[in-house]
């Protein structure tokens, strides 16, 4: 069914020899991409392969150093997104570009407002929005504030935003990264609808099953180069993986766990009241045993973040108790909890994990600045800290020119390896890992997984919060699902599929679900 | 449908205003003969006049902050407004004085915009710089332009004329085609009917000899609402303060929006400064702004970044300011009102089962009422800080409901992510 699309006569978009250099790296190295009219064209590659840079160039957010772009047969050169929009190209960003406090309608019309006698013609805008929603099956209330919408709905706002500007070519940058499987299916329905109406879609992803399910043509990037353009009916996921990384893709997995009934972390009836209508925590009961990884799944904003903050002491609980090795730590300040052996890999390493403009050896101290080898009495032990950092860099394979380099200069994966190394080096009893592999490349991902497995084998208790369902199922010994501040299900990862997990996460799965 | 919604909103505002006047009238009755100035045409007139510069600073704050730029330099921009307003009024007459005062403030805004938007300087640092530069500059300019004039000096200008005022015909006895109309509000006020006369006194105060500049300033409240919430330009300004990267990705020139908004902000502050010099005092004097720029910033927060809210905040400050100048005993009577209001809030908190706030409110209420009962007059330091205390209370109890623009104070560079 896809035989004619690869070499269609006039491509909707053609990129030839695109090169983009950043200080120290070549993000795109003579990349070629040829997208036929009316197809869904997937661009795949691991993190750092240059997919996003390529799309930003096509959307006018960055200028290419070399190469040519052709849209609809004529050569173009964009210096801003508005020029790309005028040429009929729209982009749905990976991190949504939506103003939370504005309404859906305001977000959609922004920059292309219909006006009547000097004011925004809200009636006309509403009509257009509802027409678009009906014809593409994208259901939305124009007057909702974006902050009240769920992730899938926000994505629909982004798509409508692009369609509202009359885009014929839609770029979607890792659109499934934030969605549960059910939402992914809905997104794919929308995309097929768009394709049926003659739109061309460029779809960026690194999840191979998804790509094989939706794409008409696949272009693979590796280290900034075009490796291949293939027909999905002619390749397997395995072959694609090899094209992407040059070797087999790592998968998360663990050995069976040794029997150990010692409970490291015990949480009883933990509650935090809702603020501003957001779900907080409602009677959480949870145990993590020695040498066990407990996975916490949930759609973002259902209390996982609050739970992590409560365990760490960043947020005060109003009810319930938290105990570490049988000793209640509920009233303890954060530092005392950390000193007692609580390790923490934060969800957002840029905001909570690192001081981006500080050297690595200072970053390695964070959270352990009161204990040896980083401190001696009230003073910072510079030599001890530097030696310890050198050890972390070596043991955890942090690729850096030296320990005086600033954290900002490292890639996401190496930053994360430093954070994990820092926590592990302190010899914690309990590790809280929130989204430890988010936004890092495949190699670093495999390293993080290996670190977690090693720690587990050494008897560390791990609470793993993640949005990557494969990771949860692969690594965890037990799975808990959070919904609206409660634990709604406990699952055995050995018998759970991502689809079932997604059902529990959205609350769609009732008691009769065969799981 | 929207017109009925709007009229019901107007009705609700009128009822709220009536409620405030009623509460004040009741307190005035209870506190007789201690004070007669809580509700009077004089207090109303003074409240409005003192509210105007604060309102203009508040509107200036809203314009800048809606675009994502913290404008702590409002104070300095007002100082520029006072000097340039007085100078313009001396050279070309009071109306030109206002225009030149606005231009002076806008120049301060431009400086702040260049620093914060173009060069990415921290907004607070740039604002403080403006606040330091402005008085130094005006001192220098006074030496150059005012010292040699009769009545002028290093720290003050010669006296200047004001722009003139209006008595509203029929309502407040204004002239209409050379015929002096009856003064209805004054007539009702003289009848001493409870509430009706009080309302007439307040309305009379705000319609009799009201400055044209005051009317212009008041018109800027709906004008700001209209521009910021109804026009495409306004949406672009607000989006620059909420999510500049998103706005830029849709082709909005964020830098231009921020520049425009900050210059408008400075212009509004300059208007406020010029109003002080030309309308309130009739003279430029050093230090005459007296922190009104900062109070204007407080009304921005008090009013939840909405022009109408800032207007209400400015009235609160204006009222407290007017009272402490006119009649200190009135402030004492006001304690009674505050005590009762706190008690009412405490009851509300109890009904909502919010125990801690309820307890705190009740305790505060008892303390204030006790204070009222055992004293004859409040300490002289209290009246001037009343508005600040009111703002603090609002911040304490409404903090969870305040919605500042999301990207406020953050540096923005084109093409960032």
Q: How would you sum up this structure in a few lines?
A:
The complex is a heterodimer of chains A (515) and B (417). Chain A is α/β, with parallel strands linked by helices.
Write a structural description:
The complex is a heterodimer of chains A (515) and B (417). Chain A is α/β, with parallel strands linked by helices and 515 residues long. Chain A folds into 3 domains: 1-88 and 168-249, P-loop containing nucleotide triphosphate hydrolases (Rossmann fold, 3-Layer(aba) Sandwich), CATH 3.40.50.300; 102-166, no CATH class; 291-315 and 331-506, Rossmann fold. Helices cover 32% and strands 25% of the residues of chain A. In chain A, the strands form 6 sheets. A 6-stranded mixed beta sheet of chain A has the order 6-9-10-3-11-12, with helices on both faces. Chain A has a 6-stranded mixed beta sheet with strand order 18-21-22-15-23-24, with helices on both faces. In chain A, β16 and β17 form a beta hairpin. In chain A, α13 (382-395) crosses α14 (412-425). Chain A is globular and about 70 Å long. Chain A starts with 10 loop residues before the first strand and ends in a 9-residue tail after the last helix. Chain B is built from 16 helices and 4 strands. Chain B folds into 2 domains: 39-167 and 209-297, no CATH class; 327-402. Chain B has 417 residues and is mainly alpha-helical. The relative contact order of chain B is 0.17. In chain B, α2 crosses α7. Chain B starts with a helix and ends in a 19-residue tail after the last helix. The chains are: A alpha/beta (515), B mainly alpha (417). The interface between A and B is medium-sized, with 29 and 24 residues.
């Amino acid at each position: 069914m896809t035989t004619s699309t690869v070499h269609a006569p006039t491509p909707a978009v053609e990129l030839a020899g695109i090169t983009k250099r950043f200080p120290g790296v070549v993000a795109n190295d003579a990349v070629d991409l040829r997208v036929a009219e009316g197809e869904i064209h997937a661009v795949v590659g691991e993190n750092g392969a240059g997919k996003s840079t390529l799309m930003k160039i096509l959307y006018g957010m960055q200028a290419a150093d070399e190469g040519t772009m052709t849209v609809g047969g004529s050569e173009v050169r964009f210096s801003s997104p508005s020029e790309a929009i005028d040429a009929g190209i729209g982009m749905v960003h990976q991190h949504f570009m939506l103003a939370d406090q504005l309404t859906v309608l305001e977000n959609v019309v922004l920059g292309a407002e219909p006006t009547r006698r000097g004011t925004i013609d809200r009636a006309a805008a509403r009509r257009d929005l509802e027409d678009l929603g009906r014809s593409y099956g994208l259901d939305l209330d124009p007057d909702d504030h974006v902050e009240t919408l769920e992730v899938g709905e926000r994505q629909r706002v982004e798509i409508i935003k692009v369609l509202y500007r009359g885009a014929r070519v839609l770029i979607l940058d890792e659109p499934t990264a934030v969605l549960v499987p059910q939402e992914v299916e809905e997104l794919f329905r929308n995309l097929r609808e768009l394709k049926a109406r003659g739109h061309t879609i460029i779809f960026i992803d690194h999840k191979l099953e998804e790509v094989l399910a939706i794409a008409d043509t696949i272009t693979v990037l590796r280290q900034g180069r075009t490796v291949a353009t293939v027909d999905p009916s002619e390749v397997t996921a395995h072959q694609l993986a090899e094209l992407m990384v040059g070797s087999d893709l790592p998968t998360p997995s663990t050995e069976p766990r040794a029997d150990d009934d010692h409970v490291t972390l015990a949480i009883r009836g933990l509650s935090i009241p809702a603020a501003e209508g957001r779900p907080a925590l409602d009677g959480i009961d949870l145990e993590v045993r020695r040498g066990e990884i407990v996975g916490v799944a949930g759609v973002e904003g259902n209390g996982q973040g609050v739970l992590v903050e409560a365990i760490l002491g960043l947020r005060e609980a109003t009810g319930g108790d938290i105990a570490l090795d049988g000793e209640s730590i509920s009233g303890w300040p954060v530092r005392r909890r950390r000193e007692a052996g609580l390790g923490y890999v934060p969800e957002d390493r840029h905001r909570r994990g690192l001081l981006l403009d500080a050297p690595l050896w200072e970053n390695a101290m964070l959270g352990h600045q009161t204990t040896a080898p980083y401190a001696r009495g009230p003073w910072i032990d510079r030599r001890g800290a530097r030696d310890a950092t050198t050890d972390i860099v070596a043991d955890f394979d942090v690729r850096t020119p030296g320990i005086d380099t600033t954290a900002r200069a490292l890639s996401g994966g190496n930053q994360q390896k430093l954070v994990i190394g820092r926590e592990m080096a302190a010899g914690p009893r309990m590790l809280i890992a929130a989204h430890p592999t988010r936004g890092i490349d495949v190699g670093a991902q495999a390293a993080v997984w290996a670190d977690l497995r090693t720690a587990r084998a050494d008897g560390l208790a791990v609470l793993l919060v993640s949005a990557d369902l494969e990771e949860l199922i692969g690594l965890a010994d037990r799975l808990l699902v959070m919904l609206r501040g409660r634990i709604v299900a406990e699952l055995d990862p050995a018998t759970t599929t991502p689809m079932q997990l997604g059902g529990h996460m959205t609350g769609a799965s009732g008691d009769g679900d065969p799981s | 449908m929207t017109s009925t919604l709007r009229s019901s909103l107007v009705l609700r505002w009128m009822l709220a205003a009536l409620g405030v006047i009623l509460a004040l009238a009741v307190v005035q009755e209870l506190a007789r003969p201690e004070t007669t100035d809580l509700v009077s045409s004089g207090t109303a007139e003074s409240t409005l006049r003192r509210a105007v510069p604060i309102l203009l600073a508040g509107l200036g704050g809203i314009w800048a902050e809606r675009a994502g730029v913290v404008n702590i330099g409002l104070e300095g921009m007002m100082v520029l407004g006072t000097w340039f307003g007085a100078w313009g009024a001396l050279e070309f007459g009071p109306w030109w004085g206002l225009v030149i005062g606005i231009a002076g403030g806008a120049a301060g805004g431009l400086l702040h915009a260049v620093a914060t938007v173009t060069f990415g300087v921290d907004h607070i640092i740039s604002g403080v710089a403006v606040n330091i530069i402005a008085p130094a500059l005006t001192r220098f300019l006074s030496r150059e332009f005012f010292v040699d004039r009769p009545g002028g000096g290093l720290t003050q200008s010669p006296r200047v004329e004001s722009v003139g005022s209006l008595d509203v015909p029929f309502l407040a006895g204004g002239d209409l085609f050379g015929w002096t109309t009856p003064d209805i509000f004054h007539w009702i006020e003289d009848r001493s009917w409870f509430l009706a006369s009080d309302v007439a006194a307040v309305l009379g105060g705000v319609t009799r000899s009201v400055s044209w500049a005051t009317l212009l300033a008041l018109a800027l409240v709906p004008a700001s609402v209209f521009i910021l919430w109804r026009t495409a330009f306004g949406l672009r300004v607000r989006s620059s303060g909420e999510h500049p990267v998103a706005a830029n990705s849709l082709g909005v020139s964020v830098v231009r929006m921020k520049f425009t908004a900050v210059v408008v902000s400075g212009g509004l502050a300059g208007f406020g400064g010029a109003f002080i010099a030309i309308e309130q005092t009739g003279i430029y004097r050093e230090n005459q702004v007296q922190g009104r720029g900062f109070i204007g910033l407080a009304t921005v927060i008090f009013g939840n970044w909405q022009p109408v809210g800032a207007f209400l905040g400015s009235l609160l400050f204006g009222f407290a300011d007017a009272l402490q100048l006119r009649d200190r005993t009135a402030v004492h009577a006001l304690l009674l009102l505050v005590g009762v209001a706190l008690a009412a809030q405490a009851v509300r908190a109890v009904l909502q089962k919010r125990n801690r706030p309820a307890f705190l409110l009740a305790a505060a209420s008892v303390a204030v009422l006790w204070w009222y009962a055992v004293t004859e007059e409040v300490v002289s330091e209290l009246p001037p800080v009343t508005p600040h205390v009111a703002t603090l209370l609002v911040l304490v109890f409404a903090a969870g409901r305040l919605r500042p623009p999301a990207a406020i104070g953050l540096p923005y560079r084109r093409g960032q992510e």
